[in-house]
Specification:
By secondary structure, the protein is an alpha+beta fold. About 25% of the residues lie in helices and about 25% in strands. It is built from seven helices and 16 strands.
């Protein structure tokens, strides 16, 4: 029988709590749900709230079937908020918006990665953050990503923009900048310009083009996730990897001190201690008072 729990007055069905989702660490679905409910709920909800969510689902763990969905899954409770999201192929499309703890737990029970756009539901294609996804091509690792991240931080600062870092939860880094709302196309153009500059400044290391043949040993500075149709792994989401790795906020001291490929890998079990030590490092991204205008 599927257990029912009450979360903030909502009845949420939780299933298969003893199921091992991450065999490498023995992490069960119940432990995943505890991670979201007890460890990161207060930190992750501000990054999810008011943004249409796309789910990468892996109900049988990362070794099973993975599928990406934007539409509300069948059986979505009526109390889970959705929002209209215009798409060229479906003008009437809607997506889930995770507004509260009950919705977070309902979604986490589906076993998902959370992915969100750089804009809010009330203003589609008007970005309030900028993102760079730094993706290393082997034999490059996160160490090289950190070098590129430090260059981008200085370049952004020259334009009056503060940058904040998190791991991708895979092998790279994400840099994020809180912005005063600006059209996604303009944000994308600015991000591309800086990616080109990074390649010019670090010619043996940074790359702004996506071509796979060019990427071995270099860091792809992916600016494309600023496009209105694109999404990025939400801060604190678990990833569908061999272990329960987290897209975890990191300090600039950690980025500056990165010397080993495995230096910036964090699991669910690490996050309570990190939140106690550092607090919510990405809080400026959800504070309108910290937003800065996109340079002209």
């Amino acid at each position: 029988m599927t257990p029912i729990t009450e979360v903030e007055g909502r009845r949420v069905s939780l299933s298969n709590l003893d199921k091992v989702l991450y065999p490498a660490t023995g992490t069960t679905k119940g432990e995943v749900l505890h991670y979201y409910a007890a460890t990161v709920a207060d930190a992750v909800l501000p990054h999810l709230r008011d943004r249409p969510v796309s789910f990468l689902r892996y109900p049988d763990g990362p070794g099973g079937q993975l599928f990406f969905t934007k539409n509300p899954p069948p059986g979505t409770p009526a109390w889970v908020a959705t929002t209209a999201v215009p798409r060229s192929e479906d003008p009437g499309a809607r997506q889930v918006v995770v507004q509260d703890l009950a919705s977070l737990m309902w979604a986490a029970n589906l076993v998902v990665e959370f992915h969100t756009p750089q804009w809010r539901a009330e203003a589609p294609a008007v970005a309030d953050r900028l993102v760079f996804d730094l993706d290393p091509g082997a034999p490059a690792t996160v160490v090289e990503c950190c070098t590129v991240a430090l260059w981008l931080r200085r370049r952004l600062a020259a334009d009056g923009l503060p940058a904040y870092g998190k791991t991708s939860g895979s092998k790279g880094l994400h840099l994020l900048v809180p912005l005063e709302p600006a059209p996604s196309g303009e944000v994308s153009a600015y991000a591309k310009r800086l990616a080109v500059e990074a390649e010019q400044a670090l010619p043996g290391l940074a790359l702004h083009r996506m071509r796979r043949a060019l990427r071995p040993g270099k860091v792809f500075v992916d600016f494309s996730q600023n496009a209105a149709a694109k999404t990025t792994a939400t801060p604190y989401t678990l990833r569908a990897r061999s272990g329960p790795t987290v897209s975890a906020p990191v300090t600039w001291d950690e980025i500056e001190g990165c010397r080993e490929a495995g230096a910036l890998v964090f699991h669910a079990r690490d996050m309570a201690g990190r939140l106690d030590r550092y607090g919510e490092l990405l809080a400026p991204l959800t504070d309108p008072g910290r937003a800065r205008p996109l340079p002209g």
